[in-house]
Write a structure and sequence with these properties.
The chain contains 6 helices and no strands. The chain is mainly alpha-helical. It has one domain (about 1-80).
Length: about 80
Amino acid sequence: MADELARAERLDEELRWMLSYYYLVEPRYVDRFDGLDHLKQAGREEALLYRQACLNRSFRGRGHMGRYCKTKQTILRQWP
């Protein structure tokens, strides 16, 4: 389903920047799955989207994932 959405260029904003994060941190994480070619391409095309999008998000009410992302925000804000 996600690969079909990527092919149709209909991925939601959060999935797009999360994919870019996975490719930035460990490209082989997504690449290890067979198929999903459009999803993989979407992640590679916008490698720095993660940095921009994460800084502008609110992660309130997101539980453990929200705390993880808030930590990432703090680290990104320290970069020049």
